[in-house]
Amino acid sequence: MKKLLLAGVAAAALSTTAISSGALAADLGSPRMPVAETAVVVPSAFNWSGFYGGVHVGYGWGRSNWGFSPSGTSVSPSMDGVFGGGQLGFNYQINNIVLGIEGDASAADLSGWSSCPNAAFTCASRANFLGSIRGRVGWAWDRTLIYATGGVAFGQFRHRTYDAPTVTQVGGYSNSRVGYALGAGLEYAWTPNVTTKLEYMYYDFGSSTQLPGPGSLDPTGFDSTRIRNNVHTVKIGLNYLFSTGPGAVARY
After folding, report:
1. What predicted TM-score, i.e. pTM, was given to this entire model?
2. Which class would CATH give 45-251?
3. What is the C-alpha R_g of the chain?
4. How many Cα atoms within 13 Å fall on the side-chain side of residue 90?
């Protein structure tokens, strides 16, 4: 009786083992179902999106082209000097493209002089203020951004004529001008919030005319004076990004 019982248990064990082995073999032989492709979002190293503000300092140079009419004479005092101020802006990054808008304002001391057509007098010009509101479009390589910029420019100028021997002012003309600004720059992010930039800008303020009369730029008082101003600048800026994000690029 015991022998029959042991034989039955052994047969049952062998049967269970065979079934388990067959199931495992069936699992190993079954084809693997494909995994659906999904977008994997990976963080980029740096994102330029957000508001920013900062300060800048630079060097500028240019000319004031004076034309006297109806005498037909002219003179072009050159100007150069330093300027400094601040800027505010906003960037929005799409993949490597960075779009933005920036406004800046600078106190300036760009001045120069030359002899007037009548050598008994000196003609002098000075830029006291430079500002602009511009769009920006750039290309970012991680923390490095190269960009072009352009928009509306604002300037304030002061022009004077002096008696050459005594350096006594005999005429004056101050005016505020609106023109355009074009430039390009390179910006680098040292930390997630701090960047520096190197920027070149050209300003063209067009022409304005002072009518003849007592105290005008023409010492004789008979000529009107038409003045055209343009300025080149190179500046170094420091910016703080108030809001930045990790950024993301979808890869498939």
Report:
1. 0.79
2. mainly beta
3. 37
4. 1
